[in-house]
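Posting this for the archive.
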Amino acid sequence: MQDPDLRQQCRFPAPVNDQWNYLLSTIWNQTMHLVVKLDGRLDEGRLRHAAERVMEAEPLLACRFVEAAEPYWEAIPSFRPESVFSVAGQGGDSEPALREVLTGRIDPGAGPQAHFDLVQGDTDLLIISVNHSVCDARGIQHVSSLCARAYRALGKNSVFSPSRRFPCDRSFQPLISALSAEERAVARDCCDDQSAEWGLPWEPGVPGTPAYSVRTIEPPLFVAVKAYSRTHGVSVNDILLAAFFASVKREIPHQEDRDYPVLTSTDLRRVHPGIESPAVANLSVAFEVWLPAGIPGRPDDLVLEAHRAMDEKKRLRAGIGSAIRLEEMFSSGFGPVREHLLETKRRSRIEGYPKNPFISNIGILPHPCVDFGDPQTMAACVIPPVEYPPGFGIAASTFDRTLTLSCSYCDGPITGRAVERVLTSMKEFLSTLTSK
């Protein structure tokens, strides 16, 4: 029998933020991906060893989520680090293998929480997949950085191993407690109870097929967007939020005289950058931003409205407010929240209950997180989890002056044509905005 003290050393607390994202994985796929396109071939053996070193350095990735009155992460018995690496494709058309990876799912209850896939086509694609229950976009960039650093180092030192990181406090509490009681109260009041007001039309009862779609905003247009941002005193995030709202509004039935919400996310590490927070953690939260459906005029007017709304959310610390409300939701324990989400799922699938559309601006992917030395990285982007209907969301990520809009969805209940129209409309919005 295994020593109880040894078993305890292989367990890590699952804070409320982990529990919430684990429960969301019972409604839709919570697997996100970082896709790295290279201009040549990676050394397969060295890459496999680099992936193994990452799993050794971040032991939480080699765990499984255990449901309990107080859930926790548990090291997977007899875990084999080499099992997290796979090679697919035989050269030429890599799209079928890529599609299989990007629409796949990591089961957080079984683990492990990360996987590394080398898809071989005319040149190599590396896909690093991580379960959102363990970490957010900051975390997947950290995992990729570890892999890239290990790959480069192993070319010179075959026994290289990055420092082992044992999970520290991964909860919201250090960030929440840094605010005064008055600031926390204001932040909490800023986040009303979310309600499903509208959503992309979908066909209940149709199983659908996991799919993804990507739209690239090439450097000339993206540079123009950044120039517009600087000269008009708005952020690129404000512009993307406005473009998304205008585009989904074309697809969703609505009333012109009403405001409607879109969900967006923020990384709470940015609230108090002086507080040391772990990279492998899910410290990103979502909150609603309400915008007017019938605003007249050019795209400029909607961008200004998005800027005003986001500035208000930032001033009131809506992200912290969302975290506080999530903590309150779990005050009665893990079980009641699970039942609440099961009821939400039932209402969605049977009654056609909608879900507000979601946009996540991940921001710039820094070169170190995808620097494998030789071959060179040509492109990189983040692909979000597959949202099952009625969920619909888009992720934006930037690498080397190229912005990528990506969407993972279920084709059938939500048509691929509708997704393509939204992505096309967003690109047209950016072009019109910067065409002066």
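The domain at 173-433 is CATH 3.30.559.30 (Chloramphenicol Acetyltransferase). Residues 148 and 372 are 5 Å apart (CA to CA).
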